[in-house]
Amino acid sequence: MVRWFWQRKKPSRTFTLRSRGDEGGATRVDFAELAPELDTFLGQAAYLQLGYFETLTRLIRATPELAEKEALSRAAGAALDKHRGIVAIIRERSGDPTDVMLPFREQLDAFRGKTIGVRPRETLLAVHLTSGMLDDFYCALASSYGDIGARVVAILGADVQRDEIVDIIQATISSDEEWRSLLSMWGRRLVGDTLLVARAALRESRPGEDDEQLEPVFAELMGAHARRMDAMGLAS
Asked: Where does the Ferritin-like domain lie (predicted)?
C-alpha cells in the first residue's frame, strides 16, 4: 500500500501554525526554498477566496431558512473581503488581478468541484474545513514574503464568520444522528485533495525531494483539521 509522506510517522521536530492574531512566538519551517514567486502566491490565494465566495453564494440560494441565509451571507461576505484585500495588494504591485489569478483557475476550480457534496450540508462542511486548512497553509507560506506576507496573514486571519457555519453543522448533527456518520466520512475524504492543493502551491520539485521539510507542516495542518472536526462532534 502506498503511503503519502504526510501519513508517515510524525517527526520529532514540530511545525506550529500561528494562532489567529499572534504575531510571533511560533516555530516555523523555512519555506524560502519552496515558496513560489510572489505573484503566484497572491494569485492562488486570491482565487481560492473568490471560489469560496461563489460556493457560499450558491448555498445561500439552496437554503430555505432565512436565519441560515443570513449566516451564510456573512460567511460569503468575509470570503469576498479576503479576496478583495489580496486583490488590492496585487494592484498595488501594478499587477492585473485577472492575469495574476487566471493561471490557477482550472486547477482550483477542479478542486472546488471535488468539494461540492451531493447535499448542501456536505458542501458547507467542505468550505469550513478546506478553507481552514488552506488559510493556515497560506499564512505559514506568507512568512517568505516579508511585509506583503504579513499583510496577507492579517487579511486571512480576520474574522471569517465560521462560528455560525459550525453552529449550523452542529444543529444538523443534533437533528439526526445519521448526519454525524455521513459528515464524518465526508470530512475525512476532503483531507487528501486539500493537501494536494497545498503541495501544488509550492515551487516545482522532484517527487520526494522536499518531503522531509514538508512533513511537519502537513502533520500540523492535519492536526488542526482534526481539532475542527472534534469541535463539531465529528470523528476525524
From this structure: 41-198
Contacts of 207 (CB under 8 A, 6+ apart): none
The dihedral sign for the CA sequence 219, 50, 144, 19: negative
Question: pLDDT higher for 218 or 37?
Answer: 37
Set out the domains of the chain in order of their start, with CATH numbers: 32-231 (1.20.1260.10)
- What average pLDDT does the segment 93-112 reach? 95
Q: Please report, to the nearest 10 degrees, the dihedral formed by the alpha carbons of residues 20, 210, 83, 155 taken in order.
A: 30
Best CA proximity match to 185, nearest among 112, 138, 125, 109: 125
**How many angstroms separate the CA atoms of 121 and 165, rounded?**
10
Backbone conformation region of residue 95, classed left if phi is above 0, alpha if psi is from -120 to 50, else beta? beta
Helix (H, G, I), strand (E, B) or coil at 25: coil
Cβ 221 vs Cβ 198: under 8 Å: yes
Please write the tens of the pLDDT for every residue from 33-85: 788 899 999 999 999 999 999 999 999 999 999 999 999 999 999 999 999 99
Distances (CA, A) of 191 to 40, 115, 207, 224: 23, 10, 20, 11
